[in-house]
Fold this sequence. Notes:
With about 240 residues, the chain is of the alpha/beta class. Helices cover about 40% and strands about 10% of the residues. A six-stranded parallel β-sheet has the order 5-4-3-6-7-8. Strand 6, helix 8 (about 185-195) and strand 7 form a beta-alpha-beta unit. Helix 1 (about 35-50) crosses helix 4 (about 85-100) and helix 4 (about 85-100) runs parallel beside helix 6.
Amino acid sequence: MLNTASSREPAGQHEEVGRRLPAAVLWDMDGTIVDTEPAWVAAETALAHRHGAEWTEADGLSLVGNSLLTSAQYIKERMGLDLSPEEIVEELLDGVVASVAESVPWRPGARELLEELHEHGVPCALVTMSYERLVAPILAHLPEGIFDVVITGDRVTHGKPHPEPYLTAAAALGHDPAYCVAIEDSATGATSAETAGCTVLVVQNHVAVPPGPRRVFRDSLAELSSSDLAGLQSELS
C-alpha cells in the first residue's frame, strides 16, 4: 500500500559535510545492483532455439530497461512465436530465476552503498521492471529491510520509460522526486526517472546512455559513498 504522506524535503539528519543527502535513493535492479543482463540474453536465446527462431545478443541488449511485456511483444514479433507476451515473460523468468539461484552476480559497490545509506537512515526504494518472483531471491541475499519500498514491473500499469514506477516509489516514501536520486544503467530507466523529476546517477553497464538534463554519470558504484550522492544535484546547476 502506498504511503500517502505529503511530500517533504530532505530531513536535517540527512546532512553530511555541509551538504544534504538525498531525501531517498531509488534503485534500478537489473544491470545496476545485479548484472543479470547476460542471464536475460541467455534466456532469450534459449527461447529462440526451442522454437527454431533467430536471436542475437544485439537483439537482447536492445531491450535493456524495458518493461517485460514490452520486451516480450518485441520477442514475439521478432521470433514469430505463437505465444502470448505473458507466456513469453514467464518462460524467460524461469531461466533467469534459475540462473540467480545458482549465483547472484552483484555489481561492484552496489551492496556497500546500499548498506551505507541504510546506516545513515536514507530511505531506499527498489524500482525494477523485473517481476516479484525474480526480485525475491535477490532480496533474500540482502539485509532485511534495506529497501523501504519495492516497486516491481508486475505492480505498475506503465513500465519504464514512463515515469510511473519512479513516481510511485517516491510517493510511497512520502518524498518529492525532486529531492530523490535514482540510480540507473539504461536510457529507458534514466528517462523514466528523469521524467519523474529525479536526479539520475547513471552507471553505464552493457548499453550506452546519452546525456540528459537531470543525468550525472559515474564509471562505477565502487568506492562511491553517501557523501558523493550529496553533491550530485549541485552538478546540475
